[in-house]
Amino acid sequence: MRILVINPGSTSTKIAVYEDEKPILLHSITHSADELAVYDAITEQQDFRRNLVIKELHRANIPVKFDAVIGRGGLVKPIAGGVYEINEQMLNDTLHGCVMHNHACNLGCLIAHEIAITIPNCRAFIADPGVVDELSPLARISGSPLMPRICIWHALNQRAIARRYAREIGKRYEDLNLIICHLGGGISVAAHEHGKAIDTNNALDGEGPFSPERAGSLPAADLIRLCFSGKYTEKQLLKRIAGKAGLTAHLGTNNMKEIQERIKNGDKQAQLITDAMIYHTAKQIAAEGAVLCGNVDAILLTGGMAHSDYITNELRRRIGYLAPVYCFPGENEMEALALNALSVLKGTSKAQIYQ
User: Fold this and answer.
1) Contact yes or no for 341/83 (Cβ under 8 A)
2) Nearest to 97, CA basis, from 122, 76, 112, 116
3) Separation between Cα atoms, residue 146 and residue 149, nearest integer Å
4) Enzyme class, one word (predicted)?
5) How far apart are CA 228 and CA 233, in angstroms?
6) C or N terminus of the chain, fewer CB within 10 Å?
7) How confident is the prediction for the chain on average, in pLDDT?
């Protein structure tokens, strides 16, 4: 089975071609700020990015003939985890109905569908998008009935890492209790109980620890006062929640290598803010230990910042008392998407219907 994988990010489009479990192409197409500046909305980039994907396939001498195209899922309705066949309802919700944010992940299903319909007998999927919602009833309740808790998190990578860890120890994901922390541009921490993420934060919209690009949880009354201060527009304030927040707001950059170099050179402010991010992340991990009543088989750290020994060692120092801590640096998203599509093509799992 030949599978095309498409994973759009804010400044890149990652693509991969798999023959069964074997990758025969892995490539990241970088988009400059000038290239993207001409588009008001991210969904307007669809044709531009699709054409670059096709161009890269031609450059690599790979025929545009696939059994499936799978894209990174977007911010549609809250859904259960798994693989979904792209349908008209999903396309409509991505373009018009449910897009809460101008986020690049919304391009995944649009481009996958557009390429797949040009290929005979080719199916189009998404898998484990960031809106996967398996929260327990208790987790949904906030202190205001006007604002029930929702989750937007790194579902695809977290579930892939959970399954990988389970395979490595000879167990099933569904038999384990895990706390998984994705350390990326946003930070999501989830309590996985027997194969379901029963509690996790809204890592995009302002909840949990702050991160390189996200504000995380903020003092509510101060935020309301700021909204009515007249100093900022709604668009500017939303950027202060996601985009120009966290390390970016404090230190002027989201580049951890640059920040760590500044720390080595004696920058005390960079040290303080980085340590504060680690502190609040550890606190969130410990909170998920309470969700699982202390019955935690392992804590898994993943995402780009898990490459940093300093960050992972400091987290381990603070939360190692809860359970053994294991690191899986980087993201496993391309392989996870390919294997999800392959499982449907081979009949070992069934694609769900988006409604």
Assistant:
1) yes
2) 76
3) 10
4) transferase
5) 10
6) C
7) 95
Domains of the chain: 2-132+333-353 (3.30.420.40), 137-323 (3.30.420.40)
CA separation for the pair 95, 91 (Å, rounded): 6
Q: How far apart are the first and last CA of the chain?
A: 28
Rounded to an integer, the average pLDDT of 287-300 is: 98
Return d(Cα 30, Cα 113) in angstroms, integer: 22
Structure-token pair, residue 287? 């909170």
Q: Cα–Cα–Cα angle for 345, 110, 42, nearest 5°?
A: 145
The string of DSSP letters for 21-40 reads TEEEEEEEEE--HHHHHT-S
CA–CA distances in Å: residue 268 to residues 30, 50, 53, 215, 263: 33, 44, 43, 21, 7
Report residue 70 as tokens: 């799978």
* Residue 307: HSE in the Cβ half-sphere, 13 Å Cα cutoff: 10
24, 97, 11, 92: which is closest to 56 by C-alpha? 24
Condensed to tens digits (0 to 9), the pLDDT of residues 74-130 reads 999 999 999 999 999 999 999 886 656 678 999 999 999 999 999 999 999 999 999
Q: What does the block give as tokens for 202?
A: 């809204």
In a 3-state reduction of DSSP, which class is residue 57? helix
pLDDT in tens, 137-161: 999 999 999 999 999 999 999 999 9
Distant-in-sequence, close-in-space partners of 64: CB < 8 Å, separation ≥ 6: 54, 57, 115, 118, 119
Which residue would you say has higher pLDDT here, 332 or 342?
Answer: 342
Mean pLDDT of 309-335: 96
On whether the pTM is more than 0.90, the answer is yes
* Sequence-distant (≥ 6) Cβ neighbours of residue 208 within 8 angstroms: 187, 188, 189, 201, 202, 216, 217, 280, 284
